[in-house]
Amino acid sequence: MRVGILGAGQLGQMLARAGHALGMEFRFLAPPGESCVEGLGELLLGDLRDPALLDRFVQGLEAVTYEWENVPAAAIEHLRRRVPVRPGPESLRIGQDRIQEKQFFRSCGLSVQAFAPVDAPRDFAMALQAVPLPGMLKTRRLGYDGKGQARIKDARDLSAAFEMLGGVPCILEAFVPFQAEISLLAVRALDAGGTEEIRFWTPCRNEHREGILDRTVSPAPELDAVVIHEAQHGVRQLLRRLGHEGVLCVEFFLKDGHLVANEMAPRVHNSGHATIEGAFTSQFENHMRAVARMPLGSTEARGVTAMRNLVGSVGCPQAAMPKGTFLHLYGKQPRARRKLGHVTSVAQREIDAVAACDAAFAALQAQPASARG
Ligand SMILES: Nc1ncnc2c1ncn2[C@@H]1O[C@H](COP(=O)(O)OP(=O)(O)O)[C@@H](O)[C@H]1O
Ligand SMILES: [Mg+2]
Question: For residues 150 and 129, what is the distance between their CA atoms, to the nearest angstrom?
């Protein structure tokens, strides 16, 4: 089966590796820039709004998927006339706008923090009435890794923050003093007869540093079975109503024992990387299975996993790795705040998984001998 992937970053790399093991072949289409998919398939670079380029890309493909959610909606519409695009346009549309996302969460029975649209200065007063401060002002679209966000301590900060974010449509949301950040990864697939299958991986607890994911542990130790069941119930509704086919990740804040839904990604997600070694079937394999309408594999965990991102630079990529840890380098040029790779560990106990992952991380981040005084 020949599958097209929009985007050519590390998620595309890991999707293609999983797909190759299933006998698939790939073609990638991405905006000009660095790619991580060399040797994994044909790569086309260009403007995703160019219909001729889209036609060239889709030639001979049996399905198309995407590894990044800011794909232009018009590109999906164009491709959809030629081949199935999975997940479909509704998942992308909702996931591209923070206001629609939160309204949709609410309609699926998930709790959300107080929020209000701030599309222009005339909305300031109304938003401040609806949202208790402190809050966060975020661009409605195109934000990632903490970009396009500003803290709002009191009402006077709003105008400057709106200007700073470029005067584009925003959302004001209440700051959630969370105990933990949680993500839930799910996959939905249909078979040829239209019968659905939905599976969940164990929930993840995520720690961020400067807005970028730093560490994930799964299963999240703070969650009890009732809370997980409720969140899964909401996410199941969401998947069905979107008609979603593929992996989807919902990020939550855990506060006072309850989960508050913050945002979703209609694709494979950084917090699910440890499923490569830590689950019977990884998020990447199950995503490709759903895209190809193949039966899903088991999402059951093989143990407790820990994952840490390697961001900005990797001091010592040749370092010895402790037993039970796994290194993934994406082949990208080092740059501040850029995700260059990750390291995973799998163990029977959380304490061992975290210790091994942290030891591997420290060894990888050590300064090379030549750089030491
Ligand atoms: N309303 C909020 N309350 C508390 N922390 C927040 C809030 N919104 C965002 N954050 C913090 O900023 C991080 C990034 O925000 P998020 O909404 O996930 O956007 P993105 O991941 O697209 O940059 C979150 O993981 C969380 O640590
Ligand atoms: Mg996020």
Answer: 18
Structural domains of the chain ordered from first start: 2-85 (3.40.50.20), 114-174 (3.30.1490.20), 180-371 (3.30.470.20)
Which residues sit with their C-beta closer than 6 Å to ligand 1? 113, 136, 143-146, 173, 175-176, 181, 208, 211, 251, 262-263
Other beta carbons within 10 angstroms of residue 153's beta carbon come to: 11
Under 8 Å between Cβ of 197 and 207: no
- Residue 264 to residue 112: CA distance in whole angstroms: 12
What is the pLDDT averaged over residues 13-26? 98
With residue 96 as reference, give the H or E element that holds it.
Answer: none
User: What Cα–Cα distance (Å) separates residue 226 from each residue in 181, 195, 217, 233, 251?
Assistant: 17, 27, 19, 11, 18
For 183-227, what is each residue's pLDDT tens digit?
999 999 999 899 999 999 999 999 999 989 999 999 998 899 999
Using the mean position of ligand 1's atoms as its centre, give its distance from the Cα of residue 105 in Å.
16
How far apart, in whole angstroms, are the C-alpha atoms of residue 349 and residue 351? 6
23 CA from centroid of ligand 2 (Å): 33
* Token duo for residue 149: 């966000």
- DSSP E strand boundaries for the chain: 2-6, 25-30, 42-45, 63-66, 115-118, 135-139, 149-152, 170-174, 180-190, 196-200, 204-209, 212-218, 246-255, 258-265, 304-311, 325-329, 339-347
Q: What distance in angstroms lies between residue 187's CA and the mean position of ligand 1's atoms?
A: 23
Structure tokens at 22: 């299933």
Cα 221 to middle of ligand 2, angstroms:
20
Ligand nearest the Cα of residue 144 is 1
Q: Which of 101, 262, 263, 264 to mutate to test the pocket of ligand 1 (most atoms within 8 A of CB)?
A: 262
Ligand 2 centroid–CA 264 distance in Å is: 8
For ligand 1, atom 7, the nearest C-alpha belongs to 175
In 3-state terms, what secondary structure has residue 330? coil
Closest ligand 1 atom to 98 CA: 17
Share of the chain above pLDDT 90, in %: 94
Q: What token pair was written down for 245?
A: 């086919």
